[in-house]
Every structure is written in structure tokens, then in C-alpha cells.
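Page 47, continued from p. 46.
Same chain as before, 150 aa.
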Amino acid sequence: MPDDATAHCSKLVAFHRGPVADAPRHLTSSMNSIFIRDLRIETRIGVYAWEKQLAQPLLLDIEFELPSSRPFTSDRLGDAIDYSAVVRRVQALAADHSHQLLERFTEAVAEVVCGDFGIPWIRVSVTKLAPVQGAGRIGVRIERGTRGGA
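Result:
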């Protein structure tokens, strides 16, 4: 009689050959994502005159669904999203934008990542660090697109 580990591995092998009715839900899910946490950038953002003149630190968390599940089997960068390219693109946006509101900047991050990399779903959180006296952080979180496309 096989032990639990052997039974689990058998299900994994069967899953790679095709769906298994009793496979664990996390193995049959069609969403595969990449996350980038605690991306710290400096940018000018805000409605007050001093905010427009002085760069402020922002902390970004980005999670996005991959448009394809191919990189999980091919092991080829060409089939994947190069997350370092995503980081560089967000840094370039932060260096050159005209948005005053954190809400609009957050939306712009979602737009450029989805548009430039063909992402079907994204969640972006942008946090101002110590924006007002008495608050350690204030931020915006959005989700855009449709989950479960890969």
C-alpha cells in the first residue's frame, strides 16, 4: 500500500499528463502569477507645491498573472515575463510622469505593465511612506483585468 507521499507524487505525475479529478485544487488552478514586493522608488507626486519639487519614496507591490503557463514546462526565459524588465519599466515611469494623485499613478503602473507585457490581470499597491503626520503609510491598491486566463 503506497504511503501519502507516494500517492501525492502519483497525482502530480498524472496531473502533468492530464487533469486528475481528485487532484488538489492548487494543482488544477489556471492562474500562475509573479509578484514583486517592496519595490522602492523615488518620484515626485502630489498636489502640494513642495510635493511637486521634492522626490518622495514610494513602496510598490505588484502581482500579475502570466499570459501563458509555458515557462512552467519549457524553462525558457523567452516563454516567461522577465520580471527585471518589469521593474525597469516601472522605474522609468516613476522617473518621468506628470501624475499628481497616487490613484492615477497606480493606474498608470497597471496600464504600462499590462500593455507592455501582455498581462491579463494585475494587482498594484502603491504606498506613500510617512505622508502625513500621524500616519506611517497611506496607499492605493487596484486590480485590473481578468483572472484565470493562462
